[in-house]
Amino acid sequence: MPVVTRHIGLSLGADICWPLAFEQILQDSRLRLRLGRETVEFACERVPLKPFLLEPGCKYDVVVDRLTHWFKLQREWIKKSVLMDDLYVYNNPWSVQSYEKHSSYCAMAALGMPIPRTAMLPQKSYDQVDDLDHTLQNYAELFELGPIGDALGYPAFLKPYDGGGWRGVSKVDDAEALGKAYDESGTDLMHLQAAVKDYDLFVRAVGIGPQVRVMKYDPSAPLHERYTVERDFVDDVQRQWIVDTCLTINTFFGWDFNSCELLSRDSVFHPIDFANPCPDSQVNSIHYHWPWYVLSNLKWALFNAATRRPMRKTLDFEPYYRIAAGAEPYADKLQAYARIARERLAADEFAAFDAEHFGPLEEAAWAWFRSDRCREAIRRKVGNLYPAHEVDEFTDRFHSLVLQSVEELAATSGRN
């Protein structure tokens, strides 16, 4: 039986802790999968940044990309490799480049999702370019900001249309605050979005392929406490609604790894921020949830590499829009969107593959998370962020939460 090696590349920026976990757990698992007439092994390495020819040639079967949303060289290499070498990458680089928060709001509102009312505002100021003065003098209409704020209501949020790490976000409680924030927005093109008043729950759902983690989030807490450890804060119907929303968004835009924020009011979940195809994966913020992130990331990468699953190079919106055009209630439409999503993500095939092949991977993961190597990886991340006198305290804190999560995950999986 021939032995073949599938190659996984990690395209990284400032990531420290999760790549160590990914690499070491994969190595410890010593996975050798009998698939048809082949025995499949895996190799993993970090993808370097270097010149490349616009010619076929890519050693990787799958690339886990954490860089191309801002680093142009890597994005263009990945585009070349997808088009010429059938590389599977998550996420679709053209979609990441093109579909910012503005486009995602428009598309999901068109599908019927309860997106808060949002207005786009002209830039407050502009970088000087040729023909700018002529264009503005002839076509830019004077407008009053106050009536727009009144129409949406207060409080509201003024934020850049393309988003990114809470950059430039202002909560405005009245017309005076709106005017001041807008005056300070500079050359950013801005959205003004109505707040979901009196919401009773803030949820973050992260999808990695067909796997979804639903987390209760507290934006008022310090960064290291925002992702709470609560697990039974929604019922089964609500959880399925959140999962279906997350998978619909991800597959619509071709994103394998993306997070979705939702606010619940009167049992209606309003998506407010869901163009995040490079979600936070660092132990200092997601701590308790970090083992799930790492293991789910490994499983999805290995499944795609092992099966040589082809990447969907183009985005096909039409099946979603045909459903949206129907007269059915939104709840029925969401279920139909989610069926498309699960088909596109080969959810049933993945579940069967997981059950048959990933026992050794889980065993290696539980052992690694319980090891000193895990604690050292956590310490390296903490040491990069925290002052020296706090490193021991926060290393212990995050490691304790990781161990708590691992015991619960291992007990649930039955592979402990």
Task: Describe the model.
This protein has 416 residues and is of the alpha+beta class. It has a domain at 117-194: Dna Ligase, domain 1, CATH 3.30.1490.20. It contains 16 helices and 13 strands. The strands form three sheets. It has a five-stranded mixed β-sheet with strand order 2-3-1-4-5, sandwiched between helices. The longest helix is centred in the last third of the chain and has 23 residues, at 391-413. The two termini are 31 Å apart.
Descriptors:
416 residues; Dna Ligase, domain 1; alpha+beta; 5-stranded mixed sheet; 45% helix; single chain; globular; 4-stranded antiparallel sheet
**Strand numbers in spatial order across the main sheet:** 2-3-1-4-5
Considering the protein shown, what is the CATH homologous superfamily of the domain at 117-194? ATP-grasp fold, A domain
Please give the share of residues in helix.
Answer: 40-55%
Low-confidence stretches: none
Q: What is the arithmetic mean of pLDDT?
A: 95
What's the SSE blueprint?
Elements lengths: L2 E9 L5 H13 L3 E3 L2 E9 L15 E4 L6 H14 L2 E3 L2 H6 L2 H10 L7 E4 L10 H8 L5 H8 L3 E5 L9 E3 L2 H9 L6 E5 L6 E8 L2 E6 L19 H18 L3 E9 L2 E9 L6 H4 L3 H18 L10 H7 L5 H15 L2 H11 L1 H11 L2 H14 L5 H23 L3
Parallel strand pairs: 1-3, 1-4, 4-5
Antiparallel strand pairs: 2-3, 6-9, 7-8, 7-9, 10-11, 10-12, 12-13
Helix pairs in contact: 1-10, 1-14, 1-15, 8-12, 11-12, 15-16
Can I get a quick summary?
By secondary structure, the protein is α+β, with helices and mostly antiparallel strands. The chain has 16 helices and 13 strands. 37% of the residues are buried.
